[in-house]
Amino acid sequence: MKTRYSLEDFDQIPSARKIVSTDIVLGELPTLDDVRALAHWTNDLLEKFNRGPEYFAGPPKKDRSAAMSELAHLGAELGWGDEQIAVMLYDADDRWGKYKGRYDRDRRMADFINRARQKHGYNSLDNVDLTKMIESANQTTPIMGESKLIYGYQEFVDAEFKIEWILDGLLAQGGLGLITGYPGTGKTQFSIGVGAHLALSKEKFLKWSNVAGSKKVLFLSLEMGAAPLNHFMGTIAKGYDDMNTLNRNFLVAPFGTPVYLDTPEGQIFLDQIMNEHMPDVIIIDSLQKVSSKELTDEQAVKTLIHYLATVRAKYSCAMLMIHHNRKKPNDGQKKGVELSDVYGSTYITTDADFVVSLKIVEGDLLQVDTLKNRLGPTYDPFQIERNPETLGFTSELGRVFEQFGVRDGDIEI
């Protein structure tokens, strides 16, 4: 049976953030000969551009998408114009056959250039529209979509800078959040619940409204391997009905082994994944598994956190990290949790936009503490109940609904 779609089915698909200075019109692109003659080429770029399809056949098999992203970044670093980078990418794709013949080829090429611009900007005067800069500098009142370098105090206060919320008051576009707690408190289950709600465009997750609609989520499992995670997520799946949408928008990488993002190899590996799948939200289980050094090493943590910030900016994504609290005696764990209880260097919590901590009260009754929320309200501790059959959670308000025989899909996870 052939499935039929209407335009409304695609209303909530987000577009890539546009950075390029002009729309790339295929009929107006320069020739490759012009680009060879006018653009600055390095030996490294030339060698990578001239690779033939046999290079990607391996062994080992190479990632063509990551190679095209690298070309875009190298071109941006050298001050190439958007059209020049586009010509290089289209020619490489004609030979490598990654997107050639696909309906989304033009969008993919634009995405490569957008992400390169997010990272490197326009570092050549030939690529900068100076009239726009002059207009912006002479504005007496800021205009949405344009930014100045220097403002008067009141002028800055009156300006409107919108936060692009995903979960209203908690998770912002490009933001970093931590889900912490002691072992067995349900951090992974809680985080999967967040991801599933976003993937399914559910209206609310506990106290936080989903104001961004459907999001593409990538769950990077570095602690739990494929077999146990399969069992774990199979149980969680019982709590959801729309498995087709969940399958499309919630991607799972069941590695079960560390990927050290403070090493060149780990960063290249993550780049390949991000370029291929382009998630809006990436959930990583856990922070400890992306650091090759101890999280108490302040300089190492500072470098890692800075790299994670560049990833979020480069790919315009939000990041949710599962993390652990410091070990305490059993009687200590029964007391209140503070921000200082989060394990590792203070740089971890300093750079996070929010820190949510989970603690077992009794059995499947948990307490949620918002230890930090830089941009939104910090709620008093509240309780949630875990459903042992689906590993989902119900808020206090959800239990009130259930007493009256009402099942509220926006409240129960």
Overview of this protein structure:
The C terminus is likely disordered. With 413 residues, this protein is an alpha/beta fold. Helix 4 runs antiparallel to helix 5. It is built from 16 helices and 13 strands. The longest helix has 18 residues. A 9-stranded mixed sheet has the order 7-6-8-9-3-10-11-12-13, sandwiched between helices. Strands 1-2 form a two-stranded antiparallel sheet.
Topology:
Layout: H1 32-38, H2 43-49, H3 53-57, H4 64-77, H5 82-96, H6 105-120, H7 130-137, H8 153-158, E1 165-167, E2 171-172, E3 176-181, H9 187-199, E4 204-205, E5 208-209, E6 217-221, H10 226-237, H11 243-249, E7 250-254, H12 264-277, E8 281-285, H13 298-315, E9 318-322, H14 330-333, H15 346-351, E10 354-362, E11 365-373, E12 382-386, E13 393-395, H16 396-403
Parallel strand pairs: 3-9, 3-10, 6-7, 6-8, 8-9
Antiparallel strand pairs: 1-2, 4-5, 10-11, 11-12, 12-13
Entry keywords:
2 domains, two-stranded antiparallel ribbon, alpha/beta, disordered C terminus
In short:
The protein has helices at 32-38, 43-49, 53-57, 64-77, 82-96, 105-120, 130-137, 153-158, 187-199, 226-237, 243-249, 264-277, 298-315, 330-333, 346-351, 396-403, and strands at 165-167, 171-172, 176-181, 204-205, 208-209, 217-221, 250-254, 281-285, 318-322, 354-362, 365-373, 382-386, 393-395. With 413 residues, the protein is an alpha/beta fold.
Beta-strand residue percentage: 5-15%
Number of separate domains: 2
SSE pattern: HHHHHHHHEEEHEEEHHEHEHEHHEEEEH
Largest sheet: 9 strands, mixed
Helix content: 25-40%
Report mean pLDDT, rounded to a whole number.
82
Q: Which residues form runs of ≥5 with pLDDT under 50?
A: 10-17, 124-146, 397-413
Count of DSSP helices?
16
Radius of gyration over C-alpha positions, nearest whole angstrom: 24 Å
In order across it, which strands form the biggest sheet?
A: 7-6-8-9-3-10-11-12-13
Tell me the number of strands.
Answer: 13
CATH class of the largest domain: Alpha Beta
Fill in the CATH topology of the largest domain. Rossmann fold
Shape: globular
Q: Report, as a whole number of angstroms, the end-to-end distance.
A: 33 Å
CATH architecture of the largest domain: 3-Layer(aba) Sandwich
Class computed from helices, strands and strand pairing = alpha/beta
Name the CATH homologous superfamily of the largest domain. P-loop containing nucleotide triphosphate hydrolases
